[in-house]
Amino acid sequence: MSTNMGGLSKPAIEADGLVKIFGTSRAVDGVDLRVESGMIYGVLGPNGAGKTTTIRMLATLLRPDGGSARIFGHDVVKEPHIVRQLIGVTGQYASVDETLSATENLVIFSRLLGLGRSEARRKAEELLEEFGLSEAAKRPLKHFSGGMRRRLDLAASLIAQPPLIFLDEPTTGLDPRTRTQMWDTIRRLVASGSTVLLTTQYLDEADQLADRIAVIDRGQVIAEGTVDGLKSSVGASSLQLRISNPLDLTESRRIVEQVLGVTTNISAEAGKITAPLAEGDKVTDLLIALRESGIALMELSVQKPTLDEVFLTLTGHGVEEDAAAGTDSSVLKQKEVIA
Ligand SMILES: Nc1ncnc2c1ncn2[C@@H]1O[C@H](COP(=O)(O)OP(=O)(O)O)[C@@H](O)[C@H]1O
Ligand SMILES: [Mg+2]
């Protein structure tokens, strides 16, 4: 302990029962997190789930209304100055000065962090190159697109390469090529010793990057574990059935559950049944059983589970229906441990 001011052997993040209340709504409603150092940890959830608010509390930018959190053992409320030296945050805010060029902004950041003049310049050039911004380096920031800003923002957070980096939806709105580039950069950060907590709305992003994830919904962690664990709890694939006659819905559902041995979800208005599917061949059995019962299908598909299905399975509601379903937020949810 003595000289280890960073406490880097401690978990990068430990949060216990974090709460943030805005007006009457509990944006973050008792979030527990434990992130070991050296990993990429994904926080997966739909818009409005409480991801940004959670990060802002962990990054000392917002005071929790309840619970506590430590970064490498340092309390975010009692030791914010130490915490700030251990973290980098990228997100919705970016630049020093809009009228300055990308290079100038990075040089200023570097100088602020104590790099010498020539080292700052070298670092800026290196990062601009790495992020494919060399061409635009001399342009003032106010002419940068959203994607370019995002890349510059991440580049700036890499100058110091802090032990813990928060990336808030680093790829939302990026084109596929830039997105892949961003993934590579994030992997490189971790390979060179940082711990990364990233938020995302995309299951495949969590799948590509994260060693572990927490699924967050309406301010609560509803599942935690490895991505594989999460996927197997949802099923390796997801079967979707749309039946022709809505009156057959109940009977169809019974048959699906019986043949596949699983619990299904339905969206009644569309007459659609969704079920986790472990083995592909069971589909044949299912089709035979449905035909024998005289049930006609309109549509059948087998897909990799999407975030929507993960949510449907874990919460019993989809990602989209937020506002309508808001009233049951007081219902205690069973927290599922998936790995
Ligand atoms: N400063 C704020 N004032 C009031 N409500 C807020 C504020 N910031 C976030 N919220 C609300 O808190 C909830 C969680 O928001 P947020 O943490 O931004 O979710 P996410 O990042 O997962 O999309 C949302 O309902 C949002 O409208
Ligand atoms: Mg957000």
Characterization of this structure:
Helix content is 35%, strand content 25%. The structure holds adenosine-5'-diphosphate and magnesium ion (MG). The site of adenosine-5'-diphosphate (ADP) has 10 residues, from α1. The site of adenosine-5'-diphosphate has 10 residues, from α1.
Please tally the β strands and state the result: 15
First-residue to last-residue Cα separation: 31 Å
Strand order of the largest sheet: 6-7-8-3-9-10-15
Low-confidence stretches are 1-6, 321-339
Class by alpha and beta content: alpha/beta
Domain unit count = 2
Relevant CATH superfamily of the largest domain: P-loop containing nucleotide triphosphate hydrolases
Protein name: ATP-binding cassette domain-containing protein
Membrane topology: Peripheral membrane protein
Family: Belongs to the ABC transporter superfamily. Drug exporter-1 (DrugE1) (TC 3.A.1.105) family.
Organism: Paenibacillus rhizolycopersici
What is the structure about, briefly put?
Residues 13-243 form the ABC transporter domain. This protein has 339 residues and is of the alpha/beta class.
Write the layout of secondary structure elements.
Layout: E1 13-22, E2 25-35, E3 40-44, H1 51-58, E4 66-71, E5 74-75, H2 80-86, E6 87-90, H3 102-112, H4 117-130, H5 146-158, E7 164-168, H6 176-191, E8 195-200, H7 203-209, E9 212-217, E10 220-225, H8 227-234, E11 237-243, H9 249-260, E12 265-267, E13 272-277, H10 282-292, E14 297-303, H11 307-315, H12 322-325, E15 336-337
Parallel strand pairs: 3-8, 3-9, 6-7, 7-8, 10-15
Antiparallel strand pairs: 1-2, 1-4, 4-5, 9-10, 11-13, 11-14, 12-13
Helix pairs in contact: 3-4, 9-10
Residues 22, 27, 45, 47-53 line the site of adenosine-5'-diphosphate.
